[in-house]
Each structure stands twice: as C-alpha cells, then as structure tokens.
Amino acid sequence: MAQMETEVLIIGGGVLGAAVARELSRYKGDVILVEKEVDFGWGSTKTNMCIVCQGGDTLEFRSEYHRSKLVWDSMPLMEPLCQELDVPFKKVGELALIRNNEELAKFQKLKSRAEKIGIKTHEFIDQETLRRMEPHVTREGIGALYDPNIAIVDPVRLTIGLIENAGQNGVKVMRETEVVRISQDANQFKVETNRGSVKCRFIVNAAGTSVDKIARLVNSDDFVLYPIRGYVGILDKNLGGLIKHEIHMRPDAPGQTNILTPSVHGNLFFGTTMQPALRGDCSTTGRIAEIGLQNVRKIIPDLSEKEIIHSFAGFLMFRNWEVGWHECVVQASQKVPRFISICIGYPGVSAAPAAAREVTELLRQEGLKLETDERFSPFRKAPPVFNELPEEQQKELIAKDSRYGHVVCRCETVSEGEIVEAIRHGATTLDGIKFRTRAGMGRCQGGFCTPRVVKILARELGLSEEKITKKGRESRLLLYKSKDLLEAQI
Amino acid sequence: MKLSDIDVAVIGSGPAGMAAAIRAKEEGAEHVLILERQEQLGGLLHQCVHNGFGLFYFEQDLTGPEYGHRFAEKVKDLGIQVLLETMVTQISPDRQITAVNNREGILRLKPKSIVLAMGCRERSRGQLNVPGTRPAGIFTAGTAQRFVNVEGWIPGKKVVILGSGDIGMIMARRLTLEGAEVRAVAEILPYIGGLTRNEVQCLHDFHIPLLLEHTVTEIHGQQRLEAVTIAKVNKDKKPINGTEQMIECDTLLLSVGLIPENELSRMAGVETDPLTGGPVVDQWRETNVSGIFAGGNVVHVHDLVDDVSWEAEISGAWAARFARKEEMGKEKRIILKPGRNIRYIVPQTISAQHDVTLYARVKDMEENVTLKGGDIFAKSLRVVKPGEMLKIDLSHSQLRQLKDDAVELSIEGEKRRQNG
Amino acid sequence: MVEDKIICIGCPLGCRTTLRIGDRGEVVKVLGYKCKQGRQYVLEEYRNPVRIFTTTVLTENSSQPLVPVRTDRPLMKTKLREATLALVRVKVKPPVRVGEVILPNLLNSGVDVVATDDLFE
Asked: CA–CA separation, A346 vs C66, rounded Å?
C-alpha cells in the first residue's frame, strides 16, 4: 500500500473540495485531494439545480449570515472562473412570481432591506411585462420581482474543470480513495485510506454528506449536520424554449421550493421537495414526484408529466433545520489545529469561489505558508463539445480524428471522439461518460447508446465489457457472458 | 461518390426505410439514397432473432434478420446508394439534410424529397418515474435485446420484466433460453399489451408468471439491483396498499411503451400528432412539410413488421412522384376523428377520391363491438385490444357518400371489460 | 378424466379452451372455442405442439461474437430445452451466409439449424 506525504490533504472532490484544490494550487506546496467515488462531484454536487446566486440569497442577504456573505462575495467571481475553466455559464436572470398583495408586501420588505446594504439589482415588473418576458407562465398573480444577475452553470463540469486545473497546477488527485481513519500527533495527521496512508500537516474536510463523520475521526465534531433530501425533475429539451429565465414561486408548504429553470444544456429542471432522510438514501418516491409536478404546474399550467425524462434526489447538509436555512460550516476546528471543515448545504455551488478563498485564509491562519507559484495558470481547456462547435471547427475535428464523425448518442449528438476524450480525462464508468459528455442524458436515457459506450469504454480501458460499471464498485452492467449460464446447466 | 441530385433521401434502413427506398426506385426515382446510423442495413431487425416476421408480406415465417436480408439484397440489386454509420443531425423545413460520419465528415444534402423512417424508441425509467434507488441492472427491453443477441452478454440471471408488450414477452423467452430465470412479468393492465401468440409461446411455454394488474412500485439496491417491490393496482392504475411483495432480482427489464423518434421531424417543422407521437400524414404519407414523407414506426407504432414495410412503401412511392414534380392528386381533404374508444387513426387526413387503408388503435379492450366509420362503414368485431392494430379499408365510393369533411371512427360496444 | 388448457392464438380473442382427455390420451371434448379454426388449432396444438426454435450461437469472430440461428422446420415444444443445451458449445467459423446449415439433424430430429444472418470474417 502506498505511503504518501503532503502539506495539505483535501478530503472530498465535490465542488467545494475542488474549488479549494484549485485555489491552493496558486501557491507553492504539495496538495493531495482524495475522492471516494470513481469520479468527481457525485455527491451533493451532481444533484444540484445548477442555479448560481439565487435571488433568495441576495434578497434574504444578511451580513451576519456567513452563507449570505460567501454567496455575495462569489457573485463577481463565478463568471470569470467559468471562463477560465472553459465551462458553461449563462446569465438567465430570475423572476420571483408574486401572486398576491401579501407576497408583494413581503418582497417589498426584502427588497428595501437588500437596498439598505447596497444590493440594488432587483426591480418589480407588472403582469403585462411578465407576460412579454415569459408568455407561458401562469396568468394568475400580479407580477414578479426580477433580478437580472442570476445565472446557471453545470455543477459537475465546473467541478471537473476545477479538478483538472488544480491537477495542471500540481495538485495530486486520487479517486476511489476513501478515508478510513485519522490519527494525529503534535505536528501532523496520518490519514489512512483504502489506498494507502497520507501524512499531512493540514486537512481540509470537504466531504459533503460525510463532513461530520470525517470530523468525528479527529474528535472534532463541533457542529451538527442534518441531511435533507431534495427532489429534482428534468423536462424534455422540447420544452427548453418554454422559459428563458429561472422562475420561482414562494413555497406553499415548508420544505418545498418551487423552482423551474432552464439548464445550460437546454432542458428544464424543476424542484425541489425537501425532506429529512437517511443519509445516502437517494431514492425517489412517487409521492414526492407528484408534489414536485403539482408545484411546478402552478408556474406553467398544463405541464404534462409525459415531458419528464428523468428525476433524481440529492442531499444538502443543513445546520439548524429548526432555525432555517441560513448557516453553513466554513471553519477551523476549535478542538484540533490545522483542521478546516467546509460544508455549505445551500447554495454550495454559488458560494464555492469565495468559500475556497476563505478556506485558504483559514489555512494561512492555522500556519500554512502561502507563497505564490509563478507557474500557476488559471486556464484550463475543456474537451471539445462537438455539437456546440461551428461547422468549420467540426470539420477540423473530424479531419484530425475521424472518431468525432461517429455519433454515438443520438439524442444529445455526442461523438465517439468526445467519449474517448472523456476517458482520457479520467472517466471509467457509464455515469462518468454521462456527466462529462451528456451521452445517455437525452430523452432515450441511454437506450440506444449504452451498448456502444460500453464497447468504447472496454476498448479504451483495455477491459472486458463485463468489467464496465455504471458508477464504480459493484455496479457492473453485464453479469454473464453469452452461454455461460447455460454451460453451468449442462 | 455522388451526393448531389438526390431524388429521394430515406432516413433509416430498417424494415421501413429499405421498403421505402426500394419502392421509390421501382416508381422511377433515379437517385435514391439511404442514410443509416448503424454499421449495416436493417436497423433493429438484426437483434430480433425470433420468428414471426413476414407472415403476410412474404407468406413465410421468418426471423428478423432473414426479413431484413431480403430487403437488403433488393437494395443492393437496385443500386440504391447507401451511407452507413451516418447520423442525420438536422433537417430543415426546406429539406436540407445535415449528416455526420467519420469518412466524409459533415455532409450537406438537398434531396428533392425525404422519407422519414427512423422508427421509434423505448420509454425509459426516467419517464416512468419509478421510485427507488439508481442501481445498475435496469434496462429497457430493446437495449437488453441488443446485449443478449448481438453483443454477447446476459445482463443478469434473476430477471423481472415490467410491461407485457411484445418486446417484453420476447425477451422473457430469450433470457430463459439463455439460462436466466425470469421471475415475473408484471403488467399494469388486466390484459397483455402484445399479441396472444407471444403470451403463449413466450410466457406459458416457459412457465413464466404473468402478473396482470401489477406494477413495480419500488427499486432496491445501491450498486446493482437487488430486488423490486411489486404491487397490485386498482382500476385507476394506482398501487393498492398492502398488496406489496418484494421479488429478489438482479435485472429489471422495462417494456413500457414505444414512442416514434420525432427529433428530426420537429426540426424540419413537421407537425406531430399528440395521439401517435408521430407526424400528421395524409394517405400518401406526406407530412405538412412539402416533400417530406414518413412511413413505418416513425408515424405510429405497429404490431407487425409487414405493415411497417407496406406503409413505408406508400411513403417511398409518393416521395418518388414528388421528386418528379408529379401531380399529387390532392383534392378535398377529409379529416379522420378518433371517436369513442379510439386512441388514434393514421393517416390523419385523406382524400375523398381514392381508396384508402386506415390504421387505428383502441384505448381499451372490448368484446362484441361494432367498428363504425361515420355513416359509411360498420363492421362487427369479436374483440378489440390496444395491442392489436385495426386495419380498415375504405373505398372511394364509400368516401364519396360522406356529407362532411370529417369522418369519425368509433367503437360501439355492448360488453365493456373493466380496465386497470 | 384429465384436462388440458390451451390458449388459441388464431385471433386476438385468445380463447381459453379446455380439452378433456380420455384414458387412452384421446381428446374427448373441446370447450371454450368460438370458431372452428380455433378448435382445429387447439387440437393440433394438443396432439403435436411444435415451435420454430430460434437462438444465437457463438462464433469465432470476436467482433461479431454471435450469429442468430433457427431450425428450418418446427421442433417438438418439449425439445426446446434440450435444443438450447445442444447448441451451447457450437462455435461457428466465419464466413457464413444466411441460410447456411450450421448444425444438421439437431437432436436426431431431422431438423437442421441454419444461420439467419451473415457472419463476416
């Protein structure tokens, strides 16, 4: 088993761990990031609704809320970050629908409070203007509150971009590596994983739904986290043009948000219905799905359930469930030196850029020497997305590598070239290909392309097809070779 | 290779595409081109190793590949141009085709007419919204069929199948013959979705339990499927509390519906019928976009491949005539209206001057009924089922009796079977 | 008196028929059919239940690991399992054309197993 040594160990390769890795890669010094899954962003990150800087944050901004400050500080950083990392970022703006005078009064209060602290981005619009901006939205209600600053991203692509840029700049990244035990003496930690041990001076605990579990490994559980499960539904791309902005309505029941948003890839996402659940139990239930649909029908009436192509549930970790949504964990441990925990239940993606900076500052306060690395490059080039390129570039790509001319996923027009490139960049599973290339995310949900993707994975990885998994570990797709079951019966 | 002056471009080379292309050539179209995304002609026929194909078209009981082979030979003999491993990515309303392959790169074609023959795709779990976890081991029946019959892999050895459409029942037999144990086929309706022949030869022959009025209510297993929960449903298709039972399995096959592939159709501005999911067509299988025709499962999902080919031939023939700028003979239009217990009718509009064959499906099973076409047509039928398409021949003399521009097709019955 | 239940597949009705079998195995009575063709079918199915057997067979071509096959004539229904096992160890060498016999006289039944698709090199 490997024995490694480093300055900083980051536990967790979701959007926060990745953002910290990237931030730290600006400086000299060794950093290792370990991720327990086979690919990055597969915890809370991938089940995000992709919205950056939600209006609720700026409206409900309170400088005494740590979370608010992180989101506010991140807002000017996100677009440049996405450009540097060559990942999608689209400013769509947000409309908070106002149904009646009571809601209007609430929003007016929030807006004036926001203005008092310098947030002047919102404006009220009437029903007529709303109708012009969004012809398909419900006619009921008196108008909306509009914030042009809200944007959408692809959280997994962002995470992968951060990880790759961190890697380019010297961070060592290890997947399928799970932390099992941590021991410590006066100067350092010894972290045991399933792949060997790591001696390190500093730990950044960014383990998502396992943040408290990891903290307990060093007896530093100075916070309590509650897992809350949210449900998200995806609507067919045919409906992609239905709305242009992220739209939401105030929830009619506690634990529900009612959001309908375009995604950067042209689908519509809706959700969420939140409920406390057993950690790691990402199963969806029929009742939750119904509620989600009922809610979003208040925004767009006549939405047919036939247009749902997929749905999923994901976890957010919250501090004080009873008190509300306002707190997060970005703190150095009170009990253990050089141990920083970070967990921002909501909105983790939006707060990531500023949160990474804050963690870096906390590390500095704990004694990490931050010396700028001249060789740092903030730029990372994403693998080409064939169907987004202008025709001239598509032709060039095919001329360079004819596999870009072999379309494997019909629904999302993904070529073999892109799949091979994703494998080169580290994808080893069907889901890995899905999140990196979108093959399998279209309306047929992998019906046509799965056998072909499996073949390509097997070929590129030099494995037999039966070794290929959906998401790593024991999730193999094909259990038996043809005639083997019969052989056993002869 | 010549890719200009194309008279008819056919998208898809399954039983529809090949039939359309052949017929177009026989109708005199000089340059007929087939665009196929897979590595060979035949579409899904290669993975349908079972028999039951061509009983009517060839009056023989053939397997899928054999049926396809006959057409593929004819395609070659007639000198029809074929582009394999070529994906059509766009069709514009003015009939410009953009396609991609790894030899010619990006192709821009402007044929005189187009036949859409892309077939259909399967409904997925995501669309069904079955609650539960997301383990490996869940496949649509068609994808599993590809693995089992072409790629050489058996997904698992303890199988549950949701849906008793033909493909589900066929796979029940197939997996049993490959050594797996099919523990149940669950069907939400009180009767099977496919042909009785398959119930007998796929399920009964192998003693595979058929659970009617049942559905899968939950999926279990984190990495790989471990079990499903099945429950009985009431007449509103909602699970009945207390009837749940867990069935241990490592594979779940979904055979829960087929939907015409209409991505390209929509791009071209083709109007689709929400009742079929496919394009609105007239009896010559022309869509609302001039020069774009459609035939086969892309228009509506058939039961028999023979009908797929016959229908596609209509589209091929008229696409050829359109390319020749021939008079289409479209006079007064009659609209077909689905009436009582009729789910859809194809074609959606017809002319009053010509004989026509209508295809229709019912919503619910009924026995001892009369199929009525307005005042001009009536036929008694012993039984009608959603899984068995109706074919109605109307002559132009019958059609001329119509007083309006519409005719309603309906089922008038005495005994109505309760559905789920 | 023994009973056998057979579903007629002649038409979508799928009549569930019952055959009463006498001591010498002869059909004494047929119940539940609605037409004479149906009655004929179930009698034939009782006396001589046969099926065209279709499956796949392994090949020596790794990029085309299977070739689909069929029996050229129907087999007794009871022989299907045996037929399956008899083909497990067959490995077909390319090239093979549609219709070519890959295993003659399956289980000594006089029925040949033929390829239903081409197998390339």
From this structure: 51
Helical segments of A190-319, H only: 211-217, 286-299
Q: How many residues are recorded in chain B?
A: 420
Specify if C87 maps to a domain: yes
| Distant-in-sequence, close-in-space partners of A106: CB < 8 Å, separation ≥ 6 | A250
Task: Flag if B151 and A451 touch (Cβ within 8 Å).
Answer: yes
Of A367, A380, A365, A94, the residue nearest A243 (C-alpha): A94
- Chosen CATH of B124-256 out of 1.25.40.10, 2.40.128.20, 3.50.50.60, 3.30.450.20: 3.50.50.60
Q: Is there a domain that residue C75 lies in?
A: yes
Q: Could you report the per-residue pLDDT of B86-131, keeping only the tens digit for each? A: 999 999 999 999 999 999 999 999 999 999 999 999 988 776 777 7
End-to-end CA distance of chain B, in Å?
Answer: 56
Say if residue C38 is in the same domain as residue C61: no
For residues A272 and A277, what is the distance between their CA atoms, to the nearest angstrom? Answer: 14
Element (H, E) at A452: helix A450-461
Mean pLDDT in residue range B187-204: 93
Q: How far apart are CA A375 and CA C20, in angstroms?
A: 90
Determine contact, residues B142/B235, Cβ cutoff 8 Å: no
Q: Which two tokens stand for residue C3?
A: 């009973």
Which pLDDT score is estimated for A63? 73
Question: Is the model's pLDDT at B329 over the cut of 80?
Answer: no
3-state secondary structure of A199: strand
Structure tokens at B30: 């000089």
Cβ–Cβ < 8 Å for B260, B299: yes
Alpha carbon distance C11, B418 (integer Å): 21
Kind plus residue range of the DSSP H or E element containing B264: helix B263-267
pLDDT at B233: 96
Angle at B188 between CA B187 and CA B194, to 5 degrees: 50
Q: Which domain, by its residues, includes A114?
A: 89-150+226-318
Q: Which residues of chain C have pLDDT under 70?
A: none
Taking alpha carbons only, the member of B275, B299, B266 closest to residue B92 is B266
Among A454, A483, A486, most C C-beta atoms within 10 A, so best to mutate, is A483
Beta-carbon separation of A486 and C58 below 8 A: no
Rg (CA), chain C: 19
Q: Measuring CA to CA, which residue among B3, B21, B2, B1 is closest to residue B11? A: B21
Exposure b/e, B151-174, CB count within 10 A at least 16 = b:
bbbbbbbbbbbbbbbbbbbbbbbb
Confidence of residue A55 (pLDDT cuts 50, 70, 90): very low
In contact, A348 and A342? CB cutoff 8 Å: no
Chain C residues contacting B via beta carbons under 8 Å? 7-9, 11-14, 34, 51-52, 54-56, 58, 65-66, 68-70, 77, 80, 84, 98, 116-118
Distance between CA B57 and CA B274 in Å, rounded? 30
Distance in angstroms between the alpha carbons of the first and the last residue of chain C: 58
Q: Is residue B173 within 8 Å of residue B49, measured between CB atoms?
A: no
Q: Which residue of B has its CA nearest to A305?
A: B127
In one-letter notation, the amino acid at residue A458 is A
Q: What is the mean pLDDT of residues A38-45?
A: 93
